[in-house]
């Protein structure tokens, strides 16, 4: 590891926690229990006054003695079918679900909070990693990636994007390497490092199927499944990936085990760009081999993103360790299907198709449920799907967005029981639903508000620039700088341009609001 322990602020001891802190953690957790728990979680919550001193003492003893009891390192594995259409005879059709002791998760939450505070205070995290972080999500990651690509295309450049997928990444982590990284890169030492050493060592698991238990098996690799700290430890383990990408001057974004690498270039320089990306991939594969991480070659794809008139049929294949990767026409990134022209037509089509299918099934039971139940069902299955990453659909042609509007109209009529030819505007107003296009603007403006209030990822906030106030009337009307662009269909769609444009068009009293909940409510009223 390149970082030296001498240059990193150390985290040597965990701080004790009070009963009040433990009580707050307990109240925010769900009621999920494990077979190892002496009493169900819901009952434990009802007995908080009596049990709180004991639980607090257990947590603090674990932190001070740098010791995790054996009972807290045992896991019970059950399995669920990934999809009802899959065969029950195939092992890969099932997803393992790991259950751990409830009190062990309380200890982990305390450790996670203190470790996160240390990392944030000393800027030790990867800013372009969006998984398991406050104010970050797949949506913010996709907005940034979408913005970067559109900006480069607007500048008449081509973008080479490689989507990496790690194979069983959470299960292959080497504990000794992880501990060295915690010490050398993050400054975890002393009692804290000993606690993590105890936490990772001597972990066991057993499988439960139909009430029958398997023999206990030792777990020597991987982050603990079903744990609080597991996902965080994984993202820390792959921190060097960002260093490798920066060394080759390649842009990237990471979400858990999904990594996107992308380079912009003039098309005539495509051979040099291929060599550059292959050199990066060689270094990444070398790092993975040394650190017990395997690349899923079947899911690794590359895409050449260009303008609508560019022919890329002569673009060469990408070779990784003597294995050729054929250029794809589209790739699914963070739940959005990205095509090589960035039209998002296939994504819109797939969303509409999926929603129409669900609405047809809902119609069969609509008469058996109340309007409130129908509204909840539609929100969970339809509107949440329509709203996912809809900020990046801003600026698409009406002919594409009409598909989504048709879904919304059908969903509204399903809830209210109105007829096909009834005017839709009063129906949407009754449900207090914004039309599809307005929902996109609404989402963008919420992101802009968060950026200006410091509750959005730094990589999004950097895309917005406040205008220097010279006391002119124009400065008051346009508080955010609107970047210049060449093409409405490319530069005009990116968040760095659409966000300031929409924000500057808001009335002054709305822009000056500082409470997110009030701004959200008033913004929706403004659109109506």
From TrEMBL:
Organism: Paramuricea clavata
Protein name: Uncharacterized protein
